[in-house]
Amino acid sequence: MLKYLGSKRELVPLIGELVRRIPAHTACDLFAGTTRVGQELRSSGLVVHSNDTATYSEALGQAYIAADERVLDRVRLRRLLAELSALPGRDGYVTRTFCDEARFFQPQNGRRIDAIRDAIDELELSPVERGTLLTSLLEAADRVDSTCGVQMAYVKKWAARSHRDLELREPVAVPGPAGTVTRLDAQDLAPRLDGTDLVYLDPPYNQHSYYSNYHVWETLVRWDAPETYGIARKRLDCRTTKSPFNRKREAWGALERLITSLRSPWIVLSFSDEGFHAAGDLAALLGDRGHVRPLTVGHPRYVGSRIGIHDPAGNRVGTVSHVRNSETLWVVGPSAAAVERVTDGLVPGASRAAA
Ligand SMILES: C[S@@+](CC[C@H](N)C(=O)[O-])C[C@H]1O[C@@H](n2cnc3c(N)ncnc32)[C@H](O)[C@@H]1O
Question: In this model, does residue 314 exceed pLDDT 80?
Fold first, then answer.
């Protein structure tokens, strides 16, 4: 699984337990990111629609949400992965941009990424096959990168893992019914989710743009050799590609519009205490859509915050203000009794006050 800011990896068991109590057959993961939550929904038996504006999320969705034995021949997949793994490295865009001009990967791995990515485009592939091969490459690159988990910068000294050889692995098969994938703006998709029983919402919660933070993954999937800028060699279009959920002044209006346009009987919204919106405002907004219960859990912040603040020479010069934050799962359902039934006893000590 990719290192990803705001990934629900730690909350997934709780989300899984929650959704297994909800009487739902279909679900939409509207801001899917790594698809980690969508995978949990799928393995809980739901038919999942996975959506995100990021192209890498679309690839991950093909591998983990849409793939099943009817559309993915795993014998052929393994043969393709073996052929791609055997390719000799060659200098290309990744080597030049992310190994010479920046230092996201060691050159020997960058050269193999270039060769493998070019070769994927030369193959005749179905969308699920293509997404699955790209997922294998993204995850292989993630295991040997030299960052703290975001691509705004690389670490000063090569990360230990960057010395390892790039290794393509087969993305694991996720059990459960096969779902579907789109790459749409959530605002455009939300009003079209009429028959969906449960919508899971995990929008960006502050100013940190996913497009910029994961520009290397975006470029690896698009393979459009964009012009770049700055030390991190970000895509030029990072300057203009912004989500309204990342802009303090627009984020509330965007969330309001989104929630209002949903018709599903169940909504689960994740929101961090480091986000733009106050709990009371969220409770009021969601209260217009049904009965609400917040479940709050604390967890460690992203790894960079625990490493601390360093000067350009690598000396620790400060610590960040806090190393734990909390995240609230806002559960919205059709009646007070139904919400109580699905949330009861889920989080010891969680706030019980229904909004
Ligand atoms: C907090 S992350 C989701 C993390 C995800 N739940 C996980 O576990 O990996 C927010 C996601 O919203 C996506 N996003 C931002 N603006 C969007 C929009 N307008 N429509 C759809 N997706 C959007 C970002 O690309 C990012 O992947």
Answer: no
The pTM of the full predicted model, rounded to 2 decimals, is 0.91
Ligand 1 centroid–CA 169 distance in Å is 25
CA 83 – ligand 1 centroid, Å: 33
Q: Tell me, what's the pLDDT at 301?
A: 53
Any ligand 1 atom below 6 A from CB of 55? no
Q: What pLDDT is stored for residue 351 in this prediction?
A: 46
Ligand 1 atom showing the smallest separation from residue 205 Cα? 1
User: pLDDT at position 245, please?
Assistant: 95
Distance separating alpha carbons of residues 263 and 105, to the nearest angstrom: 45
CB under 8 Å to 285, separation ≥6 — which residues?
255, 256, 259
Give the atom of ligand 1 at the shortest distance from the alpha carbon of 52: 22
